[in-house]
Specification:
disordered C terminus; alpha/beta; 8-stranded mixed β-sheet; 10 helices; 38% helix
C-alpha cells in the first residue's frame, strides 16, 4: 500500500517545511506531490531545498497562478499511490490522522473518505461563526442535490482510491473543486463514501487564510452545476476520440498546462 499526498501550495513559505516534515513523519509508505501554484513569497526556493533533501518529495510548478482546483488537477495526474489524500499546506489539518482516514479504505468498506471537522471528539480551534454557518449551509445544499448525508462537504481532507479519481475530470480551478468533486463522486454508481471525525486548527486571515465570500457564492453555483443528474462525469471516451472529439474550453487549457505551463521535478 502506498499513499500519495497531494499538496497544493500558494505563498506558504512560512509553513511548507513544517508541513512536509509532519507528513513525512507519518509511518505510512507514501509519496509527496507538491504543486507550487506560482508562489511569489519564496515558497519555490524552500521547495527546491526540500526536493534535494527528500527523495520522496516531488515538485510540480505552474507558470502562472491558476488556483487550488487547478493545482490539484496537476497533482492528481502525477500520483502513483494506491490511495490519494489532499493536504493543505497551512497547518490547519493534522497529518497524524492519516491512519484514521485510511482505515475504512484499507478495511475494504469505502472508496472515498471525508474527514469531517464537525463530528467526533477531536479538538477544534474556535474561530469565525459566519464561516461555520456558511460551511453548514453549503453542505446542506450539496446534500440536497447529491442525496448524501455528509456533515462537512468543504473539508480539505478527502481520501480516494486512485481508480476513483481516474474516473473524474476536474474542471474547477479554484475552491469550487470541493462541491464539484462531491457531485461527481455522488454520480459514480456504487461509490462508497465514509466520514471520520478529525481535529481542526483553523487560521485567521492575518495568518494567511485565502478563502472569501466570493468563493462561497461560487461554491453554491458549483453545487447546482455539478449535481449528478446533469453531470459531465467522465473524460472523453475512446469513441469520442475516434470521432474527432477535442476538449472544450474548460479542459483544453489543462492539457496545455500539463505540457507547457508545468515544470516537474522528480
Amino acid at each position: 500500500m502506498k499513499l500519495s499526498v497531494v499538496i497544493p501550495v500558494y505563498n506558504e513559505a512560512a509553513t511548507i517545511r513544517q508541513l512536509v516534515d509532519a507528513v513525512r513523519a507519518v509511518p505510512i509508505p507514501k509519496e509527496l506531490v507538491i504543486v507550487d501554484d506560482c508562489s511569489s513569497d519564496g515558497t519555490g526556493d524552500v521547495l527546491e531545498v526540500l526536493a534535494r533533501e527528500y527523495p520522496d518529495v516531488r515538485i510540480l510548478r505552474h507558470a502562472r497562478n491558476a488556483g487550488k482546483g487547478a493545482a490539484l488537477r496537476t497533482g492528481f495526474a502525477a500520483v502513483t499511490g494506491d490511495f490519494v489524500v489532499i493536504q493543505d499546506a497551512d497547518l490547519e489539518y493534522e497529518p497524524q490522522e492519516y491512519p484514521k482516514l485510511l482505515a475504512p479504505l484499507l478495511a475494504g468498506k469505502a472508496d472515498v473518505v471525508y474527514g469531517s471537522r464537525f463530528i467526533g471528539g477531536e479538538s477544534h480551534r474556535v474561530l469565525y461563526f459566519w464561516h461555520y454557518l456558511g460551511n453548514k449551509a453549503l453542505t446542506l445544499m450539496s446534500n440536497a442535490f447529491t442525496n448524501l448525508n455528509l456533515t462537512d462537504m468543504e473539508t480539505c481532507y478527502k481520501v480516494f482510491r486512485r481508480e476513483i479519481l481516474q474516473k473524474i475530470r476536474i474542471e474547477e480551478n479554484r475552491f469550487g473543486f470541493e462541491p464539484e468533486i462531491t457531485g461527481k463522486i455522488a454520480a459514480i454508481p456504487g461509490c462508497r463514501i465514509y466520514e471520520v471525525g478529525i481535529s481542526y486548527s483553523g487560521r485567521t486571515y492575518e495568518q494567511g487564510k485565502k478563502i472569501g465570500w466570493k468563493d462561497g457564492v461560487r461554491a453554491g453555483w458549483c453545487i447546482l452545476k455539478y449535481r449528478p443528474r446533469r453531470l459531465p462525469l467522465l473524460g472523453p471516451s475512446t469513441a469520442d476520440l475516434t470521432d474527432g472529439h477535442r476538449p472544450g474550453p474548460t479542459t483544453e487549457p489543462l492539457a496545455r498546462g500539463a505540457e507547457a505551463a508545468i515544470e516537474g521535478r522528480s
